[in-house]
Amino acid sequence: MFSPARMLFLEDRGVYMGTETIRGIPCFHWKSCQEWSVFSAKMNVHWYFAVDNYWSTAQSSNYHIPVRCDVDGIARFTSFHHIYDFFHFRSGLPDDPTIFETPDGVYCPNRKITKQLPSVPLTMSFYTEIVTESFPVVATMKEEYDHLAFLTKFTYTALPLYQKFSANEVVEIHDFLTGVAYVTDTVTGKCKTRPIPHSNLDSTELNPHDVRMATAKHFFEFPKDKYSYEGIKTVRDVKTETWIGTKVDWPKKGSDKSTWEWHYDYGKSVDSQVIKSKAVPVEFRVHLPDESYFFSVFAFSDIQPRIYAYDVSACYLHSDREKFALSITNLIKLYVQQNTDTFKLYVISAISTTIGIRPLRIQNLKVMFGEVEIIVTFDLTDVAPTIGDVKDRLKEKSFSAAVNELRDLLKKEEFIITIFSLTSGEKTAIRPTEMTFDEVLYKTTPRTTYTKGAMAGLGIGMTLLGLIIALAVSIKVLS
Description:
- The protein has 7 helices and 24 strands.
- By secondary structure, it is α+β, with helices and mostly antiparallel strands.
- The strands form 5 sheets. An 11-stranded antiparallel sheet has the order 11-10-9-8-7-6-18-17-16-15-14, with no helix packed on it.
- The radius of gyration is 38 Å and the shape is elongated.
- InterPro entries: DUF7959 (IPR058265), LolA-like_dom_2nd (IPR058831).
- Residues 103-316 form the LolA-like domain.
- Keywords: Membrane, Transmembrane, Transmembrane helix.
- The chain crosses the membrane at residues 454-478.
């Protein structure tokens, strides 16, 4: 790195030319001859420094204060004469940690990549707050991404311009095994299905007809190589590590080049439920030629979203679906009470893997506790109601075949739910039996019983009531 003197070409021995007045300031005058071989240039450089103890800037300094640099010379076939006047000179640096940072939204091509982009988990959930420069409205959305189950989920309320389907909160679930998007109004229960859109946060277009689930890195629009590390910047009063890069075809194919900034928490100052991830996103910024977008991230977690919370049951109200009720031994009641969410996952996994159906076809899963058993109820739904645009679409088992196979396994007591101890890792095989819903209703309806004392009191009360009624009738007859 050059010293300041070398950077200003002051290291070469010059000639003292006496004193002159420049801009009304008495100055020492120094002259040197410079040659820049890179530009084939020769020049005379005149430096003017304020006379000691005669004039100084508002901030005292122990250094000579530059007032002017006068350069005249010739380069190739061109002559030049440049004058540089200096103002507000001070020694040291201002108290501003951002002075050496690249300005926001500016990407420098071919800059050496000193730090790779953060790794992104295969499962995650978070809330986003979206703001644009030109549109004075804040949009919010909860996003869930599960690459292990090929599912994504978005919970949002559409902005007024886009409320064609609903003005209420909407849950949109994308199943990339079938290519179907389920869109449900959480207030009215209205549902519609459609192929997963080709231009979406979670999808990548393979060709004009097919999409696939975006990878975890693509979900955050990470580029392959056109990016650089920008160091530590403060965003939302949080110290963040910052990367910047460029992309094309965003927000849709054919769009102009956009510049992206990714800000990740530096020092784990963000309140998060993260279990394994070392990198917690704080904010993403996107700059287009005529617009800028700001995506603030809150409550980031890499815990796998709960598969049973992907509710698409409203989309099957007028389709084939079968209700099941299972009776499970009360020996594991304490375990299930303490680990209900985990137990639900074991149940869904057992059903989907045993009869070969998508987990999303298991809906309305509930766990109840009877006096002598654990009761599990759920709906088994039909195949996907819409043909999606995915290349390797899952070939689904028919509704009747899935129902008959599960019912047959339950009848033979060959259906097994495997649960694992969270401490020792030991597994236990549970063989449930099927119940009727009349049994479920009977065994889960609270019943009132009476003690011997209560029954004796009731008997005495009824006797007194009889005497009072008889007395009242007698008085009426006599009168």
